[in-house]
Design goal:
mainly alpha
Length: 342
């Protein structure tokens, strides 16, 4: 899962208090700005916004205040307002990395991929200039980590754009670069989760399994992670372990009351995606039971899967299975409430 709301929760405005010595921005401005900055760090967004409003009324050209206001608005989910604040800050000083960063995420949130790419590329260019500086090795450790974090964030943003476009190899390369650098602003776990999904799409199941296993250790009740991990194990030949994980996911969905909702009549995208997730362990278990020659059990799981959702990550595999056992089809239609087969 990688939506703008998750990013808003994970992102920290990277240059707020850390890059005063590395860019033209200074944090020794008005007292109100300093207090707003501290309030922002303390997640007191209402306090920060009030102070920044006062600062901007006194000095509308204070691009630091406009940029910080953009981050306050972004963190509250007010993305359109944040875009206006970042645009104003950018008009005054297009080299403020804090503003470049904010514009990148606002543009990404609105699906403006080409504009977002320019912002994220600018983050990379900023960092790369420091990487090739002959004095790089003499930078303070704190400063090096800030610059490396900016590079990681730019790579992460470009990776997410590539993922959204289905450019899986490029997305993998970008996210591997993001993960290879320290990042103070975006949790490495978030980057790793996105990379796992890309590896899954590329069919590199062994590599993806490593990331999913680590994520499950921190989120043992997440059915999406369990399903992906089980599928990776299945593809890598770990059938018995995959079965254990699929059974756990199936039990969690049932125990949490997910089936109390109308999964079958809703046409909303959210409902369809949720139904697809709930159905995944049934499809997985059906395939495993076929391998174990437990054909009646396989039919039961497949009928339940179809009843919940006719969508599966590997529909061709189900089609081949039904071609192998054509006598199942009419029985499955009856048991799955007439649902179309994959």
């Amino acid at each position: 899962m990688s939506g703008p709301s998750r990013l808003r929760g994970a992102l920290v405005a990277s240059i707020l208090s850390l890059l005063g010595i590395l860019s033209c921005v200074t944090l020794r401005g008005a007292v109100e700005y300093e207090r707003a900055l501290q309030a922002y760090k303390d997640h007191q967004y209402g306090v920060a916004e009030g102070l920044l409003g006062s600062t901007l009324r006194q000095n509308p050209a204070d691009e630091r205040a406009s940029s910080l206001l953009g981050w306050v608005q972004f963190k509250q989910g007010r993305v359109e307002e944040a875009g206006k604040s970042f645009t104003e800050a950018d008009r005054i000083n297009p080299e403020n990395i804090m503003t470049v960063e904010g514009l990148g995420w606002v543009r990404y949130s609105f699906g403006q991929d080409e504009k977002a790419e320019k912002s994220f590329d600018k983050l990379l260019q900023f960092a790369e200039k420091h990487f090739v500086n002959p004095d790089w090795q003499y930078y303070e450790r704190n400063d090096r980590e800030i610059i490396q974090s900016i590079y990681s964030e730019g790579s992460f943003g470009l990776g997410l754009i590539a993922k959204r476009r289905g450019m899986w190899e490029e997305a993998r390369d970008r996210l591997e670069k993001a993960l290879a650098q320290p990042n103070r602003f975006i949790d490495h776990d978030m980057i790793a989760n996105e990379l796992a999904d890309i590896l899954f799409q590329l069919g590199d199941y062994k590599a993806a399994a490593i990331f999913y296993k680590d994520s499950i250790s921190q989120n043992p009740l997440n059915p999406l992670l369990l399903n992906r991990y089980a599928r990776c194990l299945y593809e890598a030949g770990g059938i018995e372990e995959a079965k254990v994980i699929f059974l756990r996911s199936k039990e969690l969905s049932s125990r949490s009351g997910e089936f109390d909702h109308d999964l079958f009549g809703s046409q909303s995208i959210t409902q369809r995606l949720r139904a697809k997730r709930i159905a995944e362990p049934y499809y997985g278990l059906a395939l495993i039971y076929v391998k174990e020659r437990r054909l009646d059990a396989a039919q039961e799981e497949l009928a339940s899967a179809l009843k919940i959702s006719p969508y599966f990550h590997h529909p061709r595999e189900i089609s081949l299975l039904l071609a192998q056992y054509p006598e199942w089809q009419e029985r499955l239609r009856r048991k799955s409430l007439g649902r179309s087969l994959p």
